Amino acid sequence: MGNYADNNLIGGENVIYESKYHWKIFFTLSGLFTLFIAPTLARWSDEFVITNKRIICKTGIFSRKTLEMNLNKIESVNVDQSIFGRMFGYGTITIIGTGGTRESFPNIGSAVEFRKKFQEVSS
């Protein structure tokens, strides 16, 4: 489990599922121009975690962007996949919270499994 999620768990909270970026991120312009350093750092540092109480998504190394939302405040977790996403097992996860909060995270490995674990925990 990643450092951020591990350090920010509250009492009685347990990690149910964790996902990382799909290996596809290595074959982007950013990956090629940085000799695979940028995608390696992103895959190492970014965290997408479901606990028994909330979803935690953290991106960035030096500047950090986090989304921490209680499960009872989430209306849905949507998955968008292209044909290649379906074939290779990645997609964009969009978390929609009450009050119109909408955050998207592209190129997540096993995006459908992420949504399935959320649905199991929240029901």
Description:
With 123 residues, the protein is an alpha+beta fold. It has one domain (15-122): PH-domain like, CATH 2.30.29.30. The chain has helices at 3-7, 29-33, 37-45, 83-88, 111-122; strands at residues 15-19, 47-51, 54-59, 65-70, 74-80, 90-97, 102-109. The strands form 2 sheets. Strands 1-2-3-4 form a 4-stranded antiparallel beta sheet. Strands 5-6-7 form a 3-stranded antiparallel beta sheet. The two termini are 24 Å apart. 21% of the residues are buried.
Task: Write the topology of this structure.
Layout lengths: L2 H5 L7 E5 L9 H5 L3 H9 L1 E5 L2 E6 L5 E6 L3 E7 L2 H6 L1 E8 L4 E8 L1 H12 L1
Antiparallel strand pairs: 1-2, 2-3, 3-4, 5-6, 6-7
Provide the low-confidence segments as ranges. none
* Strand order in the sheet with the most strands: 1-2-3-4
Helical content stands at 25-40%
Please tally the helical runs, counting DSSP H or I stretches of 4 or more residues: 5
* Total domains: 1
Number of strands: 7
What's the rounded overall pLDDT mean? 93
Largest sheet: 4 strands, antiparallel
| Shape label | globular
What is Rg?
Answer: 14 Å
Termini gap: 24 Å
State the name of the first-level CATH class.
Mainly Beta
